[in-house]
Write a structure and sequence with these properties.
By secondary structure, this protein is α+β, with helices and mostly antiparallel strands. 45% of the residues lie in helices and 15% in strands.
Length: 316
């Protein structure tokens, strides 16, 4: 074998080896499985520490959308949801629009009898002086958590239809059982509820478009949830990273359902707090969001051996 041929042969072998290494998505091989398990244990320990440090009860779950791995604490406990329950309502609204049962373009009047307290802007409108489309109501419901818009949508979509869809999605633990700002219903036990695991499952289904609607309609739903609104999950990631999410709070309760499109390692993060107060609850949600980002940021550009490479060499 000539010297030139030997050099070419070794160069090709090296090139193939590098290509094989980069062609595997991070975590795809069994390499360094023990080290990856250590990182996951550290995240689980941190979530437990947050739960122990917080006054009240904390539940959380994160999902690695690259591998499907779930890490959580108290993630099968049931929590009140506040406005986070508006996510399954949004899913059912888009489902019915996609099926032709109703149309997002349908306009409805906003009257005095429709006004609902709490968050939002529509409670300030005149009596039946304005009409808004169902799509506009959905935008107000998600971006400023408008309770008047939400209750109008519940009337048209149907509470039973929302719950039928959550059951069909495999998360019967997620239940819409009352309209917004109904303290008597809440006291009677007709609460809007979910577990961190079930909420995380819904957000993962949004990420994968595993919803009862077309992919285009699913993409539109996700874009609506990505409209910036400020809060702990958005604050935990660098500017420019898209976050589809919905927070919720009622007295004693704080919740957040999030889908973070972190380049190289998208993930779901859900946090819930009850028997607490607003400051404690928001602090816990921010710590959960920070812990999740810290974990997935490390994995985002890692090879199976823990080295880090530019994103442009990782196949999408």
């Amino acid at each position: 074998m000539t010297l030139r041929r030997s050099i070419v042969r070794h160069h090709l072998a090296a090139t193939c080896a590098i290509g094989a290494m980069l062609s595997a998505a991070p975590g795809a091989s069994g390499a360094q499985a023990a080290q990856r398990a250590i990182l996951a244990t550290k995240l689980r320990t941190e979530l437990r520490r947050i739960a122990d440090d917080t006054k009240g009860v904390v539940g959380a779950q994160v999902i690695d959308l690259a591998t499907g791995e779930r890490i959580g604490v108290n993630d099968t406990l049931t929590f009140p949801q506040g406005s986070a329950i508006k996510v399954p309502l949004l899913i059912e609204l888009f489902h019915q629009d996609d099926a032709g049962t109703l149309k997002l373009s349908t306009r409805v009047p906003v009257g005095l009898a429709d006004r609902t307290g709490g968050s939002g802007l529509l409670q300030n409108l005149g009596d039946a002086t304005s009409e808004l489309s169902l799509g506009d109501l959905a935008m107000f419901m998600i971006t400023v958590s408008d309770n008047t818009a939400t209750n109008l949508l519940i009337d048209r979509v149907g509470m039973d239809k929302v719950n039928a869809t959550t059951r069909a999605l495999g998360v019967p633990e997620v239940k819409l059982q009352r309209k917004m700002i109904r303290p008597r219903d809440s006291f009677a036990g007709n609460e809007n509820i979910a577990t961190p695991m079930a909420a995380a499952t819904i957000m993962a289904k949004i990420a994968k478009c595993e919803l009862p609607m077309s992919r285009d309609r699913c993409a539109a739903l996700r874009q609506l949830l990505e409209i910036p609104k400020g809060g702990p999950i958005e604050a935990s990631v660098p500017e420019g990273v898209k976050v589809a999410w919905k927070p919720g709070d009622i007295e004693g309760v704080n919740t957040a359902w999030g889908l973070v499109d972190l380049p190289g390692r998208p993930y779901v993060v859900v946090g819930m707090v009850n028997y607490s107060d607003a400051d404690e609850g928001m602090k816990a949600l921010r710590r959960i969001a920070d812990a999740a980002y810290g974990y997935f940021h490390v994995l985002a550009r890692s090879t199976p051996y823990g080295a880090r490479v530019p994103l442009d060499v990782i196949p999408k």
